[in-house]
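Note to self: keep these together.
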Amino acid sequence: MAREPGSASLHLGIALSAFVIFGIAQLYAFAQMVVLADRTGGGRSLVVALSASAFLAFTMIALVRQALLMLFAYSGATSAARRKLDERAQWPAVSILVPAYNEAGRIEKAIESLLALDYPGLEAIVVDDGSKDDTLARAMKYAGKHGDKRVRVLHKENGGKWSALNLAFHEASSDLLVCVDADSQLEPDSLKLLARHFDDQTLGGCCGQVSVRNTVNLVTRLQAFEYMQLNGLARQAQSTFSSVLVAPGPIAMFRRKALSDVWMSWGTAQALPIVKPGSKIYGPWEHDTFAEDADLTMNILLTGMGVTYEPRAISRTSAPETTTILLNQRYRWTRGNYQAALKAWRRWSSAPRAPKTLPIWLGSLLFETLLWPAVNLAGILGFIALVVCFGIHGPLIAWFLALTIIDLNAAAFSARIERSDMRLLWLSLVSRVYFNTLLDVSKGFALFDEFRGRGMSWS
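Structure:
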């Protein structure tokens, strides 16, 4: 049963009040730091002017950002809470697309979770993308009929996730297609929760909530905290305007017509039927970015169809368990999202049905990708510089406490809306001081490589 967002209204009220109260507090703290610099004199005056200005700007931007995200997210959450899961005599046919590469250790559980879904007559199409382990053999054990459900297992030469998804798209028979990663498991009612949104004929896609299944160490718990905030704030806020920019790979449902429109508008021709699948299969998923999920979602928006978010449809996915693997993943995501946003921006002016407001959302994504990490790092460095020069003083404590309370409140808001584990909230401070800084540095390296045109592979 979905939790009503009434409890989240308290956190929204706190956020809006904080925008005023902490904004005034930051200006006062800044003035006090200037007084302190005047008293000490010397070269410290310049240091405090630069550092305090950077940190002040950081906190003010953080306040505005959090307030706007929470305001829009609350609006979307209240609308979602009013929708009930109705029982229907007949549900639309659904095909689940599962690309898999070297997933021998997880593919069986993934298929079993699909067979356990509470949805009549669905078909699951598992595409082995030239795996080097026994993914294909393990998947083949499930090929065939399972009650009213059917599993098909296909094999192709290795060509990448985009190519495997295109093969599944061409082989699927349903009007609604669901993308699921091979390392993810859906909650039983997820498909019904997603499918009911498609009564709206203007909707091209609807994604669900991604949560971390393997919270085994600090790295995965921090990712669980991050996913909770991403879903509860950014994705929920975008959904209010049917403009979700990234429908994630672990759980996203699309209208077949929307995918066909994308393929017909910008895709490469593909001879059908496909008798012997090679490494490259063309369709709605393109191969010129490192974030095929973001690329496809933005292309759907360009066709004039909306993409929304259903917080009660949940996919539990496996997150990287080591820092090295995590940073490699985020490096790819950063470059891919940047590539997809620029690509969509270029196409927008020549797409006749594209919404006029789409550049606003693309601009917000570019801000989050390009500028927000720099603002984050400038704020942290400014704070450290002030501590080194002046030690711990009242104004600095006020600044730090303000940011901590803002983060904690936003996390509590997201946890309420997403029905997440409230015990994750203790990670707020760790995320601000360590995790976000680590990811922001990684994004900086990724963008530097992107700007200088450094090559990159999926391996």
